[in-house]
Write a structure and sequence with these properties.
By secondary structure, this protein is of the alpha+beta class. The chain has 20 helices and 10 strands. The chain folds into 3 domains: 14-98 and 257-396, no CATH class; 102-247, no CATH class; 400-467, Arc Repressor Mutant, subunit A, CATH 1.10.10.60. It is flat and about 100 Å long.
Length: 470
């Protein structure tokens, strides 16, 4: 049997202004400038030209549309945001570079090889299949299949391996390796020949498991070498790069880019002064001819004029929301960053990491009155330039634990103390996790063994057995 009934649901619908503001808050300053330029191009109501002298002297004309038959009033205003520069002002940005794209670099080197169009296509596909660290973790069989089904390129294992060998000759040395052993071998074979490098090749080729498990006595016995010879060979191996792709940053959409800090913080005369870079965009204003269209259409009965006025009204509303959203973005970012600076004042004075207090998104949300999601959007992809370096806003957030005095300390401070313990240990007899707990307790930090193990993993510190050195 079919039943009919009414059901009431309460939903929250975001206004166009709220949607616009959310989108703009997420953008870092460079992308914001691009977004503003795009709006200027797409919305004819917005004019980027400065008003002429005669126009500046005039009293702004009122766009009175009281007789215009529409439910919503059409705004009459001059669109401007206080945080814009005039057209002739150019901002002085402090920037730092993002290195050349990893994929871009390899493709460029591929272009110098004398290959057929077919070989180039196969090699290019292999490059696109490499992970960010430079490794090829796909099987040769799967590459052959993908080339056939996804790229419509017929090939075989022999040709794919042939192109892979070519890629493995590229810079950075070690790229295209299928595992750590192959990566290190590619690099050591590229070094100048010497007894040390010959022994290093033998270790990596024939005794890799013993090497990774630090079974040094087995290696010396099986290779018939002394402890000094093993040390010399290991010194060569330890200088190699296990992540060759990490030398080139690919995190910005395969392009060489610059990051512009969204905030600047100065410390002068005992005061922290926060500012936001001013934007390289002109003043936004309503184009006079569109105001004239509305005035002309106000008392007109002509359908075309009414349609033109409706179009202009829609664009005016869009322009109003856009400018207001930019103002709200500016205020939201400014208030959020100021709350972070106030919360971490001791840290921002000199950049001493031990002064970085535990802080989560909720702490800043409570101080600003913003939602946690809003604070998260502000923090994401934003940077601040301080007198001790340029940092991502995410850097300043970390959870905390209590020390022996009952005071809450940052996990970043705990990790720093843990790293110091490992750095200062006897490498012939590295500290176990239990011994690290004792060392941290002696430093005044109350941590459990499982916490030590977790932080050690996060810091990339191996277990005690794997940290052993000769």
């Amino acid at each position: 049997m079919l039943k009919q009934g009414l059901e009431l649901k309460q939903t929250q619908k975001l206004s166009p202004l709220q949607i616009q503001t959310i989108k703009l808050i997420e953008l870092p300053v460079q992308e914001l400038e691009q977004r503003i330029r795009k709006e200027l191009e797409e919305n004819p109501v917005l004019d980027e030209e400065q008003p002429s002298e005669n126009e500046q002297e005039e009293t702004p004309r009122e766009v009175s549309l009281s007789d215009y038959k529409e439910d919503d009033s059409i705004p009459s205003y001059r669109l401007r945001s206080d945080n814009y520069n005039s057209k002739d002002e150019r901002p002085q940005y402090s920037t730092f570079s993002v290195k050349e794209s990893f994929t871009q670099s390899l493709q460029e080197q591929l272009g110098y090889r004398n290959l057929t169009e077919h070989q180039y296509a196969v090699a290019s596909f292999i490059i696109g299949s490499l992970d960010d660290d430079g490794y090829l973790r796909r099987s040769i069989d799967s590459l052959v299949d993908d080339l056939s089904f996804r790229a419509n390129i017929e090939t075989d294992e022999e040709e794919v391996l042939e192109m892979l060998k070519i890629i493995q000759e590229f810079e950075p040395v070690g790229v295209g390796a299928r595992d750590l052993r192959e990566c290190l071998l590619l690099q050591i074979r590229n070094c100048r020949k010497s007894p040390e490098t010959e022994n290093a090749v033998r270790i990596l080729k024939n005794h890799f498991n013993e090497f990774t498990n630090k079974h040094f006595q087995k290696i010396m016995t099986r290779m018939g070498i002394s402890e000094e010879e093993l040390k010399a060979a290991m010194a060569k191996i330890l200088k190699l790069n296990p992540s060759p792709g990490g030398q080139i940053d690919d995190s910005y959409n395969d392009q060489a880019q610059q990051i512009v800090p969204d905030f600047q913080l100065e410390y002068k005369d005992g005061e922290l002064k926060l500012s936001m870079p001013r934007f390289s965009i002109p003043e936004l204003r309503v184009n006079r001819k569109y105001a004239d269209i509305l005035i002309d259409a106000a008392n007109s009965s002509e359908r075309e004029k009414k349609e033109a006025a409706a179009f202009v009204k829609k664009k005016l509303d869009s322009a109003k929301w856009f400018v207001e959203a930019i103002k709200q973005r500016h205020n939201t970012l400014s208030n959020t960053m100021q709350a972070i600076v106030d919360y971490q004042r001791e840290y921002f004075i000199d950049g001493d990491e031990s002064n970085l207090k535990p802080m989560v998104l909720k702490d800043i949300a409570e101080r600003t009155g913003f939602d946690i999601s809003t604070v998260s959007r502000v923090v994401n992809s934003k940077y601040i330039e301080t007198h001790f370096g340029i940092y991502s806003l995410k850097y300043f957030f970390s959870e905390g634990l209590e020390n022996q005095d009952g005071e809450e300390v940052s996990t970043r401070e705990l990790k720093k103390a843990l790293q110091e313990c490992v750095d200062n240990e006897n490498k012939r007899k590295p500290l176990t996790d239990d011994e690290l707990v004792e060392q941290m307790t002696a430093k005044g930090y109350k941590v459990a063994r499982r916490t030590i193990a977790k932080y050690r993993d996060q810091l990339g510190i191996p277990k005690a057995r794997l940290r052993k050195e000769l």
